[in-house]
Amino acid sequence: MGMPPPGPPLGPHSAWEAPDILAYHAAVQPRNPACVDLASGERLTYAELDRRVDRCVAWLLGRIGAEPGQRVAWLGRNSIDEVIASLACGRAGAVFVPLNWRLTAPEVAALLADSTPSLLVHDAEFAPTVSGLATAPAGLAMVTRATAHAEQAATTGPAPRLAPRDANAPSTIIYTSGTSGQPKGAIHTEQTAFFTAFNFALLNRIDHASVFLCDMPLFHVIGILTITRSTLLQGGALLVSPGFDPELTLARLSDPGLGVTHYMCVPQMAQSLRQRPEYDPTRLSRLVFFGTGGAPNPPALVRRFLAEGVPMADGYGSSEGGTVLGMPLGDPERMADKAGSAGLPPASVRLRLVDDQGNDVADGEVGEILVRGPNVSPGYWNRPPSPDEGPAGWFRTGDSARRDADGFYVIVDRKKDMFISGGENVYPAEIEAVLLELDAVAEACVIGIPDRQWGEVGCAYVVPRAGYPLTDQDIIDHCRSRLARYKAPKRVIVTDALPRTASGKLRKNVLRELHRSEQAE
After folding, report:
1. Contact between residue 210 and residue 288 where contact means Cβ atoms under 8 Å apart
2. What's the rounded mean pLDDT across residues 209-227?
3. Spatial separation of the C-alpha atoms in residues 466 and 352, rounded to whole Å
């Protein structure tokens, strides 16, 4: 199957051959640990991982042929097999398409119709989803992960000899979280994957002695590229977990036998770890990096972890841009002083903050983030370029930020989440950070709702921490003591849970629709 043209690139790219980092480490440190599957207990050295990837390449060539650009979709929980398949697609000239396993059959069908893969590998657990597909692309072959694993194990013969891959050809399609509409497939090449890994490793001190625990889903850019590729780029050990579980994750972070040095999650996950009764920061002393991303991290939470000796560092990235910002490590006092910031751009990334007319804003003013660099996606799969994607060579993120005099960026909010109350711009993320200063608040989300007097006002959805008393008035009083009156929410709704995407991002569109439905009744 041919590859549809992605349209003009969002970022500049020069032609070069994709480096095979795995083959390099298999040659220079063949016996060093590369990957561990925490669910199955399987452990692979770099030499073993390299051989497994070669066998997977041979299997793929036998299954789908050698025509470059064919898509291979994957539907399953995190596993070593998925890591191998993604690397094998890179060697074989195929395009890896990891799918969100939480999606319904109609949602999966829509992504398959968009990416038109030749092969779908799925966990047996998700056979009902696969069997529930009303339609599937013509010629799509479907196989369980267990069958794929067995067939690869039976593959014999020498490793396939393939020409080096064009580093600018699509190699991975990452579907966006879809927090406000249909997911789009952000194309990544081996070049963008390499520089996403390079940027992340540079910012977060990943090296050959690093042990990175990956709870983040491998269908998200943070899992399949940011964490996986940066660890393997630097020759570290990747611990693949089937998913986040507060009790298990905390036990793994505390286990001297595993020796975890690096961990990445969203702020809500970090909050839930800290609230576990067995949480003991002294057992996390091996951590070099405890990273958060996917949503602004409340400064109060960052300072709590830092005060306990846990090196919490917020960062910022996207499905399209990979790693964009990160907090410099190694200076806890400076990190605490800059709490609330997502840090600095790495060496290969260029940022602009612009107003609605596209003019650069001054330090201290809020502007939309534009990104340029070799880590930026060249476009969206099957979608023509849009004027909304930004000026030539720049990717428009849709996120608002301000830059301080030291060059640190503070993510203010999604541009579309801002609302106007009495003529003033209100950024929900600022209010959410204030709400999370309360120990009684486990999670918080703020949306703008219509108001006859002010146009819009804030409505706060709050999940209380178990065992802590909390009233609406407590919340409003706290906000009024910390925020200008127009920013303080006028309505508070206490709830058991907040809607989130699989990567932990708040689905504010669901709450807006819920509010509209309530008003219509």
Report:
1. yes
2. 95
3. 42
